[in-house]
Predict the structure of phosphoglycolate phosphatase.
Amino acid sequence: MKNIIIFDLDGTLVDSAPEILDAVNRVWSGRGYDPFDLPTLISFVGKGLPNLIQLAMKAREVEASEYQDLHDEVLGIYNAADGALTKPYDGVEDMLETLVDQGFLLGICTNKPEEAARQVLRVFGWDSLFESVVGGDTFAARKPDPQPLNAVWQALGAGPMLYVGDSETDAETAVAAKAKFALFTEGYRKKPVQALAHDFVFSDYARFMGIVDEVFGDRG
Ligand SMILES: O=C(O)COP(=O)(O)O
Ligand SMILES: [Mg+2]
């Protein structure tokens, strides 16, 4: 049974909020609505695209009947994203390659729609590093329901597992799935660190490798 590390995507491996902001603002501006600033957009992120669209609609008093069109337009932009506005956090790429070299099985459990998540992985050349990818629209349930995390874990052989994420949603998911959770503090969390249940906390991927050693011993 191989050791498993499952990552959230937005705010955990990549700082993608500028790209999400650009997609939403292009669609909203195109319809004559005022664009959002980055902190406001970040406050909409974490519970998947449908929730983000609903919050952005509410903020601009958009008619409910516009929902599907707005959702589909933003999704179309996401799916074609070239990653120009998305930045991996420092040390992420080396960390992922090191983990794979050490024999860990890696997965992604994100609330971003699955195809858009796969697009991000392709853009950075990371698609072959992850053996299982589940998005917010892969199943009927999304995080913080434990089902998506459990599905990735099962797909990777259900061995010893660590989950890594940046948000309230991830912390709740880990509790629901009874998974060990490492909280990355530089993403899109809304509350203070101590308000989120976590087993480990880190702000820097150089420090993360120490957590991996602590959880799994020295080998993958
Ligand atoms: O799409 C979202 O709402 C957040 O995406 P994440 O689960 O990768 O942080
Ligand atoms: Mg996240």
Remarks:
- The beta strands are 4-7, 14-15, 87-88, 105-109, 132-134, 161-165, 180-184, 200-202.
